[in-house]
Amino acid sequence: MFFDLASLTKPLVTAPLALEYLDLDIDWSDRLGASDWPGPITPRHLLSHAAGMPPWMPYVGMSVFEQIEAINTWGRHRLLNKATWGKSTYSDISYRLLAEILEMETGQDWAVIGENLTGLLSAPWDERLVSMPPGADFDAWCIATTTPFPDPKPGLPHDANARAGMKGHAGFGATPESACNWLSAWLKDFCGRMAVETNLSTDGQIWGLGLQILKNGENGFAELLDNMAIQGVQVISYEGIEDPPSLPPHVPTDCSDWWFHFGYTGPAMFVRPRDLTCVLILCHRLGNKTQLLSADELRARRMEILGKSLPTAKVIKLAKRF
To answer: Are 91 and 7 in contact (CB under 8 A)?
Structure first.
């Protein structure tokens, strides 16, 4: 089965390419057309989402900075907000810029060098994808621009920004086998360079270079993962679409040994750098009514998948299904 990695493209493809090809501390502001930006735009800032980029913008053919000036609806949707330079604000645009920088630096297409490094496949794909409805980006698209929302096309990722401008932040996919093969090399060559405390977000979360620290706390992933006797690469694929269990909220406390990244369409990755352990969940974000699961519902599905799929897991108590 083939899975859209969505935003897991960031830590699994774009961040390794940046570490492979770029000086992380060179300021690219002038070459990107942002000479009056409030601070430097370096690959290190972009990797840790601290370059002041907005979370998201529709892709309509403009350069990033032309579009930032053109949008007059900032603040009217949670995806349409200007960020503060130096504080991490999760941003698809940061990684879109990294892809542009990589192409300028190497003279090659981002997708081509990504495939060559990772063995993963970039869109468009021949493999069948699970059909998913538009998410929050549809509403944001309609607020930000009068350009029509892109029609779904076979072989392309599901979210609108990926379909229209996926470089850097999305656009790669994997089978469980290809993901496992790349993760073995990724853990050895890139994990330790990415899992370094780099920036705080505005809500106190800690970002490294493409990964975020997972917090401890009751009903959280860190405790569940710590109770599992696992080491090395674990890839779990889940093709079901039933509704997830309900689950009490997670109240974060201190930092755990785990780092993580989530993908919009469902996949999730958890990494423990001290012993090079990685758990990758490949799943979809649909419920049994073919509607998108909420973030809390998707969290519950991921926790259930972990508890049921890893044989030595201590399965947490889950409330009855909806």
So the answer is: no
List, as one string, the DSSP characters of 247-276. Answer: -PPP---SEEEEEEEE-TTS-EEEEEGGGT
What's the CA gap between 253 and 97, in Å, rounded?
33
DSSP string covering 135-177: -HHHHHHHHH-SSPPPPP-TTS-SSHHHHHH-TTTS-EEE-HH
State the CATH number of the domain containing residue 54: 3.40.710.10
Residue 111, domain member (yes or no): yes
181/151 same-domain check: no
Short-list 276, 289, 287, CA closest to 234 = 276
**Does some domain include residue 296?**
yes
pTM of the model: 0.94
In a domain, residue 318? The reply is no
Q: Where are the alpha helices (DSSP H) in 166-220?
A: 176-186, 192-194
Mean pLDDT per segment of 10 residues, for the chain of length 322 residues?
Answer: 95 98 97 92 98 94 92 95 95 97 98 98 91 89 93 86 90 96 96 96 92 94 90 92 89 95 97 96 93 94 88 46 26
Query: Which element (helix H / strand E) includes 278?
Result: strand 277-282
Structure tokens at 45: 């800032």
The residues facing 173 across adjacent strands are 4, 121
The predicted pLDDT at position 152 comes to 83
